[in-house]
Write a structure and sequence with these properties.
seven-stranded mixed β-sheet, globular
């Protein structure tokens, strides 16, 4: 059974950074695309970034230049480094692969 467990969220001031992690288990993920979505308060879930199994990456316009997605295939861990965070980045961040979703990790950007 596939399980995804996110971590790394927290409270950070505007301009700060967070590194999110997603520990995946239950099968091999090196042949799958893995991604991050987020849901801000009162809004729907939206795409943030994807890590393709061939090494490609793709970002939303708001994440481009501010976020870096990466993965460690040896440990089945997906990461996302987020820099220069703004209050609009306040959201629950979810890891996803195939039809599976983690429970999310909350990031709050506030002074």
């Amino acid at each position: 059974q596939v399980q995804l467990v996110e971590s790394g969220g927290g409270l950070v001031q505007p301009g700060g950074s967070l590194r999110l992690s997603c520990a995946a288990s239950g099968r091999t993920f090196s042949d799958l695309n893995m991604g991050w979505y987020r849901q801000a308060p009162g809004k729907g879930r939206e795409f943030v970034a994807i890590s393709g199994y061939l090494g490609t990456t793709h970002y939303s316009d708001s994440a481009q230049g501010r976020c870096t997605i990466s993965r460690d295939t040896g440990t089945n861990t997906l990461y996302m480094q987020m820099n220069n965070l703004k209050p609009a980045g306040t959201a629950i961040y979810y890891c996803t692969v195939m039809q599976y979703w983690g429970k999310g990790t909350r990031a709050t950007v506030s002074s």
